[in-house]
């Protein structure tokens, strides 16, 4: 190879090197970054994350609350309209005819029986004192009856307390069940056996075999159930089984079925034992015992096991634990 050929080769190689280097970078870049789509997708996710907000969640919850409000007002309006119709029907079909009949009856007595006798007594120059006194008694009786009928409550409307219609609406960010399942072993002493909502103090009441706890799901963290030290079982050998609240009262049953405790919480959140009922207070002589308790504004319902057939029945008791109705025995399949 001559000097001219060497120069030509050197020049051609120098011209090819940028192309070879560019081609090398292109090949290896594709190996390192196989797809530009991945980078683009990541960038889009980043932009979406930066724009993320929960305004739409709040708006949706607001819309659900407004829908519930409209439906509640609409339903209450339907009840009100129906009761207006019922009131008008009772007034026109029952009260007015009854009142008219009574007016006619009294008027007839006055015109045809009382007034003629009074006129006769007045015209008699020597009236009989006994007849006069008797007539006065009849008139006094009629006057008293008229007053009573005039003041009578011809129509009575039984209206429920509006407070009983106010169902508590709680807005929480987590369910109480998930929180309790995650921390239950750390929070409670013994086995969790029952739980209910107590509207009067707006907390969950949680029952274990030996203790009672209160849990407010709306409190900020750390939010742990609070043990009520004032509520104590008869002794440690008696396990608690069920509970039921009403207003500021709380009824607790025992697993052995021989006792039921009635507690009350004051306006200052102080708990006190109102009464401890024994089996003899609530059960019949041949009953084994009582197990579950549920109550409302008027009655207390107890599940009671009978001794002769080992079957359950539900007895209805008054708030002072007097039996109002003996329940029907349930089938074995319902036990």
Automatic annotation (TrEMBL):
Protein species of origin: Rotaria socialis
Entry protein name: Uncharacterized protein
């Amino acid at each position: 190879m001559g000097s001219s050929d060497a120069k030509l080769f050197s020049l051609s190689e120098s011209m090819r090197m940028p192309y070879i280097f560019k081609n090398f970078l292109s090949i290896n870049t594709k190996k390192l970054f196989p797809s530009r789509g991945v980078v683009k997708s990541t960038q889009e996710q980043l932009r979406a994350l930066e724009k993320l907000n929960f305004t739409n969640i709040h708006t949706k919850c607001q819309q659900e609350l407004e829908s519930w409000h409209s439906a509640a007002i609409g339903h209450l309006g339907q009840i009100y309209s129906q009761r207006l119709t019922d009131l008008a029907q009772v007034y026109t079909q029952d009260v007015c005819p009854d009142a008219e009949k009574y007016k006619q009856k009294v008027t007839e007595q006055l015109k045809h029986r009382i007034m003629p006798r009074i006129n006769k007594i007045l015209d008699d120059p020597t009236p009989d004192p006994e007849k006069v006194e008797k007539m006065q008694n009849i008139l006094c009786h009629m006057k008293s009856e008229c007053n009573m009928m005039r003041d009578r409550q011809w129509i009575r409307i039984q209206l429920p307390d509006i407070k009983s219609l106010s169902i508590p609406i709680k807005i929480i960010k987590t369910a109480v069940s998930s929180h309790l399942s995650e921390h239950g072993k750390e929070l409670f002493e013994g086995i969790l056996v029952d739980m209910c909502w107590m509207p009067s103090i707006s907390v969950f009441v949680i029952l274990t075999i030996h203790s009672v706890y209160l849990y407010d799901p709306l409190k900020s963290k750390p939010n742990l159930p609070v043990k009520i030290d004032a509520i104590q079982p008869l002794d440690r050998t008696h396990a608690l089984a069920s509970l039921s609240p009403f207003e500021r009262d709380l009824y607790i049953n025992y697993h052995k079925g021989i006792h039921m405790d009635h507690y009350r919480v004051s306006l200052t959140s102080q708990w006190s034992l109102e009464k401890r009922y024994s089996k003899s207070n609530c059960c019949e002589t041949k009953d084994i015992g009582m197990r579950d308790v549920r109550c409302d504004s008027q009655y207390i319902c107890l599940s009671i096991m009978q001794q002769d057939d080992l079957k359950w029945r539900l007895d209805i008791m008054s708030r002072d634990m007097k039996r109002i109705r003996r329940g029907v025995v349930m089938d074995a399949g319902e036990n």
